[in-house]
Design a protein that fits this description.
The complex is a heterodimer of chains A (189) and B (188).
Chain A lengths: L1 H15 L8 H12 L5 H12 L5 H37 L3 H6 L1 H30 L12 H18 L4 H18 L2
Chain B lengths: L2 H21 L8 H11 L5 H13 L4 H44 L3 H28 L3 H16 L5 H24 L1
Classes of the chains: A mainly alpha (189), B mainly alpha (188).
Amino acid sequence: MIYLELFWTFFCIGAMTFGGGYAMLPLIQSEVAARWGDFIPAEMMIDFVAVSESTPGPFAVNMATYVGSEMGGIFGSFCATMGVVLPSFIIILIVAKCYDRFRQSKLVKGCMSGLKPAVVGLIGNAVLTVFMTVFFSAGLTLSVFTTASFYVFAGVFVLMLLLAFKKVHPIIIICLSAAIGIAVGYLGI
Amino acid sequence: MPMKNQLKTLWELFITFFKIGGFTFGGGYAMIPLIQAEAVDNKKWITEDDILEIVAIAESTPGPVAINSATFVGYRTCGVLGAVCATLGVVLPSFVIILLISFVLREFQQIKAVQYAFNGIRAGVLALLCKALWNMYKKSPKGWVGYSVMAGSFILAAFVKVNIFLVIIGCAVFGLVSSLVMERRLAK
Protein backbone atom coordinates (compact mmCIF):
# COMPACT_ATOMS: atom_id res chain seq x y z
CA MET A 1 0.00 0.00 0.00
CA ILE A 2 1.64 3.16 -1.30
CA TYR A 3 0.14 5.59 1.25
CA LEU A 4 1.44 3.62 4.22
CA GLU A 5 4.82 3.18 2.55
CA LEU A 6 5.06 6.94 1.88
CA PHE A 7 4.14 7.76 5.46
CA TRP A 8 6.54 5.23 6.99
CA THR A 9 9.47 6.06 4.69
CA PHE A 10 9.24 9.78 5.39
CA PHE A 11 8.62 9.13 9.09
CA CYS A 12 11.96 7.27 9.25
CA ILE A 13 13.67 10.01 7.22
CA GLY A 14 12.26 12.71 9.53
CA ALA A 15 13.34 10.78 12.62
CA MET A 16 16.90 10.20 11.42
CA THR A 17 17.93 13.56 9.94
CA PHE A 18 19.94 15.91 12.10
CA GLY A 19 20.60 19.48 11.05
CA GLY A 20 18.49 21.58 8.76
CA GLY A 21 18.14 21.97 5.04
CA TYR A 22 20.10 19.61 2.87
CA ALA A 23 20.89 17.19 5.71
CA MET A 24 17.79 15.32 4.59
CA LEU A 25 18.84 15.01 0.95
CA PRO A 26 21.07 11.90 1.28
CA LEU A 27 18.29 9.88 2.93
CA ILE A 28 15.55 11.07 0.57
CA GLN A 29 17.78 10.38 -2.43
CA SER A 30 18.72 6.84 -1.41
CA GLU A 31 15.25 5.84 -0.16
CA VAL A 32 13.49 7.17 -3.26
CA ALA A 33 16.00 5.44 -5.55
CA ALA A 34 15.59 2.14 -3.69
CA ARG A 35 11.78 2.22 -3.40
CA TRP A 36 10.43 4.26 -6.29
CA GLY A 37 13.41 4.50 -8.65
CA ASP A 38 11.33 3.21 -11.58
CA PHE A 39 8.94 6.16 -11.32
CA ILE A 40 11.26 8.89 -10.07
CA PRO A 41 14.59 8.79 -11.95
CA ALA A 42 17.69 10.52 -10.59
CA GLU A 43 17.23 13.50 -12.96
CA MET A 44 13.75 14.11 -11.57
CA MET A 45 15.14 14.18 -8.02
CA ILE A 46 17.47 17.02 -9.04
CA ASP A 47 14.52 18.86 -10.59
CA PHE A 48 12.67 18.45 -7.27
CA VAL A 49 15.60 20.05 -5.47
CA ALA A 50 15.44 23.00 -7.87
CA VAL A 51 11.71 23.44 -7.27
CA SER A 52 12.17 23.18 -3.49
CA GLU A 53 14.88 25.82 -3.61
CA SER A 54 12.75 28.26 -5.58
CA THR A 55 9.58 27.94 -3.50
CA PRO A 56 9.04 29.12 0.07
CA GLY A 57 8.97 26.78 3.04
CA PRO A 58 11.18 24.12 4.59
CA PHE A 59 13.17 21.95 2.17
CA ALA A 60 12.03 18.75 3.92
CA VAL A 61 8.33 19.56 3.60
CA ASN A 62 8.74 20.58 -0.04
CA MET A 63 10.56 17.36 -0.93
CA ALA A 64 8.10 15.14 0.97
CA THR A 65 5.09 16.83 -0.64
CA TYR A 66 6.64 16.53 -4.09
CA VAL A 67 7.61 12.86 -3.84
CA GLY A 68 4.24 12.07 -2.24
CA SER A 69 2.33 13.83 -4.99
CA GLU A 70 4.32 12.04 -7.69
CA MET A 71 3.68 8.61 -6.16
CA GLY A 72 0.19 8.96 -4.67
CA GLY A 73 -1.50 12.22 -5.70
CA ILE A 74 -2.95 14.59 -3.10
CA PHE A 75 -3.42 11.95 -0.40
CA GLY A 76 0.06 10.60 -1.08
CA SER A 77 1.61 14.00 -0.51
CA PHE A 78 -0.46 14.39 2.66
CA CYS A 79 0.87 11.06 4.00
CA ALA A 80 4.50 11.83 3.11
CA THR A 81 4.33 15.32 4.67
CA MET A 82 2.66 14.03 7.84
CA GLY A 83 5.39 11.40 8.03
CA VAL A 84 8.26 13.85 7.75
CA VAL A 85 6.73 16.31 10.25
CA LEU A 86 5.54 13.93 12.98
CA PRO A 87 8.86 12.72 14.45
CA SER A 88 10.24 16.19 15.17
CA PHE A 89 6.83 17.35 16.42
CA ILE A 90 6.69 14.52 18.96
CA ILE A 91 10.34 14.82 19.98
CA ILE A 92 10.10 18.58 20.57
CA LEU A 93 7.01 18.13 22.72
CA ILE A 94 8.99 15.69 24.87
CA VAL A 95 12.19 17.74 24.92
CA ALA A 96 10.48 21.12 25.53
CA LYS A 97 9.73 20.06 29.11
CA CYS A 98 13.28 19.20 30.05
CA TYR A 99 15.47 20.91 27.48
CA ASP A 100 18.21 21.94 29.90
CA ARG A 101 18.84 18.39 30.99
CA PHE A 102 18.59 17.26 27.38
CA ARG A 103 21.14 19.77 26.10
CA GLN A 104 23.65 19.13 28.88
CA SER A 105 23.30 15.36 28.51
CA LYS A 106 26.59 13.63 27.69
CA LEU A 107 24.69 11.09 25.64
CA VAL A 108 23.26 13.78 23.33
CA LYS A 109 26.56 15.67 23.09
CA GLY A 110 28.50 12.50 22.30
CA CYS A 111 26.08 11.38 19.59
CA MET A 112 26.08 14.87 18.04
CA SER A 113 29.88 14.88 17.81
CA GLY A 114 29.55 11.92 15.43
CA LEU A 115 26.36 13.05 13.68
CA LYS A 116 27.52 16.50 12.57
CA PRO A 117 30.51 15.29 10.52
CA ALA A 118 28.46 12.32 9.28
CA VAL A 119 26.02 14.74 7.65
CA VAL A 120 28.96 16.32 5.79
CA GLY A 121 30.18 12.95 4.49
CA LEU A 122 26.67 11.87 3.48
CA ILE A 123 25.92 15.12 1.67
CA GLY A 124 29.27 14.66 -0.05
CA ASN A 125 27.94 11.37 -1.36
CA ALA A 126 24.64 13.00 -2.40
CA VAL A 127 26.55 15.66 -4.33
CA LEU A 128 28.64 12.95 -6.03
CA THR A 129 25.44 11.17 -7.08
CA VAL A 130 24.05 14.39 -8.54
CA PHE A 131 27.38 15.04 -10.29
CA MET A 132 27.28 11.61 -11.94
CA THR A 133 23.64 12.12 -12.97
CA VAL A 134 24.33 15.52 -14.51
CA PHE A 135 27.53 14.68 -16.39
CA PHE A 136 27.72 10.89 -16.75
CA SER A 137 24.09 9.75 -16.95
CA ALA A 138 25.08 7.26 -19.69
CA GLY A 139 27.82 5.79 -17.50
CA LEU A 140 31.49 6.57 -16.99
CA THR A 141 32.66 6.51 -20.62
CA LEU A 142 35.21 8.57 -22.50
CA SER A 143 32.69 9.32 -25.27
CA VAL A 144 31.06 11.83 -22.91
CA PHE A 145 34.05 14.11 -23.39
CA THR A 146 33.47 14.32 -27.15
CA THR A 147 29.99 15.85 -26.82
CA ALA A 148 29.58 19.62 -26.95
CA SER A 149 26.82 19.61 -24.35
CA PHE A 150 29.21 18.20 -21.74
CA TYR A 151 31.41 21.29 -22.02
CA VAL A 152 28.43 23.65 -22.11
CA PHE A 153 26.95 22.26 -18.89
CA ALA A 154 30.37 22.01 -17.26
CA GLY A 155 30.69 25.74 -18.05
CA VAL A 156 27.25 26.43 -16.54
CA PHE A 157 28.26 24.49 -13.43
CA VAL A 158 31.53 26.40 -12.95
CA LEU A 159 29.86 29.76 -13.59
CA MET A 160 27.04 29.02 -11.13
CA LEU A 161 29.52 27.76 -8.55
CA LEU A 162 31.36 31.10 -8.76
CA LEU A 163 28.06 32.98 -8.40
CA ALA A 164 27.02 30.79 -5.44
CA PHE A 165 30.26 31.60 -3.62
CA LYS A 166 29.68 35.29 -4.41
CA LYS A 167 26.46 34.79 -2.38
CA VAL A 168 24.13 35.32 -5.32
CA HIS A 169 20.62 34.21 -4.31
CA PRO A 170 19.79 30.55 -5.20
CA ILE A 171 16.66 31.58 -7.09
CA ILE A 172 18.70 33.83 -9.38
CA ILE A 173 21.15 30.98 -9.96
CA ILE A 174 18.32 28.61 -10.87
CA CYS A 175 16.69 31.15 -13.21
CA LEU A 176 20.01 31.91 -14.94
CA SER A 177 20.77 28.21 -15.44
CA ALA A 178 17.27 27.68 -16.81
CA ALA A 179 17.74 30.54 -19.28
CA ILE A 180 21.09 29.16 -20.46
CA GLY A 181 19.56 25.69 -20.72
CA ILE A 182 16.74 26.98 -22.95
CA ALA A 183 19.13 29.01 -25.11
CA VAL A 184 21.48 26.07 -25.54
CA GLY A 185 18.58 23.73 -26.33
CA TYR A 186 17.17 25.91 -29.08
CA LEU A 187 20.62 26.60 -30.52
CA GLY A 188 20.90 22.83 -30.82
CA ILE A 189 24.21 22.37 -29.03
CA MET B 1 -6.22 31.61 30.19
CA PRO B 2 -9.93 32.17 29.45
CA MET B 3 -11.36 30.14 26.59
CA LYS B 4 -11.83 33.10 24.23
CA ASN B 5 -8.28 34.38 24.69
CA GLN B 6 -6.88 30.93 24.12
CA LEU B 7 -8.72 30.56 20.82
CA LYS B 8 -7.42 33.95 19.75
CA THR B 9 -3.82 32.98 20.58
CA LEU B 10 -4.16 29.67 18.75
CA TRP B 11 -5.42 31.48 15.67
CA GLU B 12 -2.59 34.01 15.89
CA LEU B 13 -0.03 31.21 16.21
CA PHE B 14 -1.43 29.58 13.09
CA ILE B 15 -1.53 32.80 11.05
CA THR B 16 1.93 33.96 12.17
CA PHE B 17 3.59 30.69 11.28
CA PHE B 18 1.57 30.49 8.07
CA LYS B 19 3.13 33.82 7.06
CA ILE B 20 6.59 32.67 8.11
CA GLY B 21 6.20 29.44 6.14
CA GLY B 22 4.92 31.26 3.10
CA PHE B 23 7.64 33.87 2.91
CA THR B 24 10.95 32.18 3.73
CA PHE B 25 13.00 30.68 0.98
CA GLY B 26 15.65 28.15 1.85
CA GLY B 27 13.75 27.01 4.94
CA GLY B 28 15.21 26.13 8.30
CA TYR B 29 17.73 28.66 9.53
CA ALA B 30 16.42 31.32 7.13
CA MET B 31 13.28 31.23 9.28
CA ILE B 32 14.96 32.07 12.59
CA PRO B 33 15.18 35.88 12.05
CA LEU B 34 11.51 35.96 11.04
CA ILE B 35 10.49 33.94 14.09
CA GLN B 36 12.49 36.35 16.20
CA ALA B 37 10.77 39.39 14.70
CA GLU B 38 7.27 37.94 15.06
CA ALA B 39 7.35 35.76 18.18
CA VAL B 40 9.78 37.82 20.29
CA ASP B 41 9.53 41.46 19.21
CA ASN B 42 6.00 41.62 17.91
CA LYS B 43 3.85 39.11 19.84
CA LYS B 44 6.13 38.64 22.89
CA TRP B 45 5.32 34.92 23.03
CA ILE B 46 8.89 33.96 23.85
CA THR B 47 12.10 35.76 24.90
CA GLU B 48 15.40 36.43 23.16
CA ASP B 49 17.00 33.60 25.17
CA ASP B 50 14.34 31.18 23.96
CA ILE B 51 15.43 31.83 20.38
CA LEU B 52 18.98 30.73 21.17
CA GLU B 53 17.59 27.66 22.88
CA ILE B 54 15.43 26.88 19.88
CA VAL B 55 18.48 26.91 17.61
CA ALA B 56 20.45 24.71 20.00
CA ILE B 57 17.60 22.24 20.38
CA ALA B 58 16.80 22.19 16.67
CA GLU B 59 20.41 21.28 16.01
CA SER B 60 20.43 18.36 18.40
CA THR B 61 17.04 16.84 17.60
CA PRO B 62 16.07 15.13 14.36
CA GLY B 63 13.82 16.70 11.77
CA PRO B 64 13.53 19.97 9.87
CA VAL B 65 14.57 23.09 11.82
CA ALA B 66 11.38 24.88 10.75
CA ILE B 67 9.16 22.19 12.28
CA ASN B 68 11.25 22.01 15.45
CA SER B 69 11.03 25.76 16.02
CA ALA B 70 7.32 26.06 15.19
CA THR B 71 6.46 23.19 17.54
CA PHE B 72 8.63 24.68 20.29
CA VAL B 73 7.18 28.20 20.08
CA GLY B 74 3.63 26.87 19.81
CA TYR B 75 4.08 24.61 22.82
CA ARG B 76 5.66 27.35 24.93
CA THR B 77 2.84 29.74 24.11
CA CYS B 78 -0.25 27.58 24.22
CA GLY B 79 0.57 23.96 25.06
CA VAL B 80 0.04 20.99 22.77
CA LEU B 81 -2.78 22.69 20.85
CA GLY B 82 -0.49 25.65 20.27
CA ALA B 83 2.17 23.32 18.92
CA VAL B 84 -0.35 21.77 16.53
CA CYS B 85 -1.52 25.19 15.25
CA ALA B 86 1.99 26.60 14.75
CA THR B 87 3.26 23.46 13.00
CA LEU B 88 0.21 23.26 10.73
CA GLY B 89 0.70 26.91 9.89
CA VAL B 90 4.35 26.56 8.93
CA VAL B 91 3.75 23.44 6.80
CA LEU B 92 0.58 24.46 4.96
CA PRO B 93 1.94 27.11 2.52
CA SER B 94 4.70 24.92 1.11
CA PHE B 95 2.39 21.91 1.01
CA VAL B 96 -0.19 23.75 -1.10
CA ILE B 97 2.39 25.46 -3.34
CA ILE B 98 4.34 22.28 -4.07
CA LEU B 99 1.16 20.31 -4.68
CA LEU B 100 0.07 22.85 -7.31
CA ILE B 101 3.53 22.95 -8.91
CA SER B 102 3.73 19.17 -9.10
CA PHE B 103 0.47 19.03 -11.04
CA VAL B 104 1.48 21.87 -13.34
CA LEU B 105 4.94 20.40 -14.01
CA ARG B 106 3.46 17.02 -14.90
CA GLU B 107 1.35 18.74 -17.58
CA PHE B 108 4.26 20.74 -18.99
CA GLN B 109 6.91 18.04 -18.83
CA GLN B 110 6.54 17.21 -22.52
CA ILE B 111 7.26 20.78 -23.68
CA LYS B 112 10.72 21.15 -25.21
CA ALA B 113 11.49 24.49 -23.52
CA VAL B 114 10.77 23.02 -20.08
CA GLN B 115 13.09 20.08 -20.75
CA TYR B 116 15.84 22.42 -21.97
CA ALA B 117 15.38 24.61 -18.91
CA PHE B 118 15.80 21.65 -16.57
CA ASN B 119 18.97 20.56 -18.42
CA GLY B 120 20.49 23.88 -17.41
CA ILE B 121 18.90 23.90 -13.96
CA ARG B 122 20.49 20.54 -13.05
CA ALA B 123 23.97 21.98 -13.54
CA GLY B 124 22.93 25.00 -11.42
CA VAL B 125 21.55 22.77 -8.65
CA LEU B 126 24.84 20.85 -8.59
CA ALA B 127 26.61 24.16 -7.97
CA LEU B 128 24.17 25.06 -5.16
CA LEU B 129 24.71 21.67 -3.54
CA CYS B 130 28.50 22.12 -3.67
CA LYS B 131 28.08 25.46 -1.90
CA ALA B 132 25.81 23.87 0.73
CA LEU B 133 28.37 21.10 1.26
CA TRP B 134 31.08 23.71 1.83
CA ASN B 135 28.88 25.57 4.35
CA MET B 136 28.17 22.35 6.23
CA TYR B 137 31.88 21.46 6.26
CA LYS B 138 32.72 24.85 7.77
CA LYS B 139 30.16 24.41 10.55
CA SER B 140 31.12 20.84 11.38
CA PRO B 141 33.50 20.02 14.25
CA LYS B 142 37.06 19.33 13.06
CA GLY B 143 39.73 17.22 14.77
CA TRP B 144 40.50 13.57 14.14
CA VAL B 145 37.02 12.31 15.13
CA GLY B 146 35.35 14.81 12.80
CA TYR B 147 37.59 14.12 9.81
CA SER B 148 37.51 10.34 10.18
CA VAL B 149 33.70 10.32 10.49
CA MET B 150 33.41 12.57 7.41
CA ALA B 151 35.70 10.34 5.36
CA GLY B 152 34.24 7.13 6.79
CA SER B 153 30.59 8.02 6.18
CA PHE B 154 31.40 9.20 2.65
CA ILE B 155 33.25 6.01 1.73
CA LEU B 156 30.67 3.73 3.35
CA ALA B 157 27.81 5.46 1.52
CA ALA B 158 29.50 6.06 -1.85
CA PHE B 159 31.61 2.94 -2.42
CA VAL B 160 30.60 0.23 0.07
CA LYS B 161 26.92 1.19 -0.51
CA VAL B 162 25.94 0.71 3.12
CA ASN B 163 22.35 1.74 3.90
CA ILE B 164 22.35 5.45 4.89
CA PHE B 165 20.28 4.81 8.04
CA LEU B 166 22.93 2.37 9.26
CA VAL B 167 25.71 4.87 8.49
CA ILE B 168 23.92 7.53 10.58
CA ILE B 169 23.39 5.18 13.54
CA GLY B 170 27.00 3.99 13.30
CA CYS B 171 28.37 7.54 13.31
CA ALA B 172 26.25 8.49 16.34
CA VAL B 173 27.57 5.46 18.25
CA PHE B 174 31.14 6.23 17.15
CA GLY B 175 30.80 9.85 18.31
CA LEU B 176 29.38 8.73 21.66
CA VAL B 177 32.07 6.10 22.28
CA SER B 178 34.93 8.38 21.24
CA SER B 179 33.69 11.22 23.47
CA LEU B 180 33.38 8.83 26.44
CA VAL B 181 36.86 7.45 25.82
CA MET B 182 38.35 10.96 25.61
CA GLU B 183 36.61 11.98 28.81
CA ARG B 184 37.95 8.94 30.64
CA ARG B 185 41.48 9.80 29.44
CA LEU B 186 41.13 13.38 30.65
CA ALA B 187 39.94 12.15 34.04
CA LYS B 188 43.06 10.02 34.54
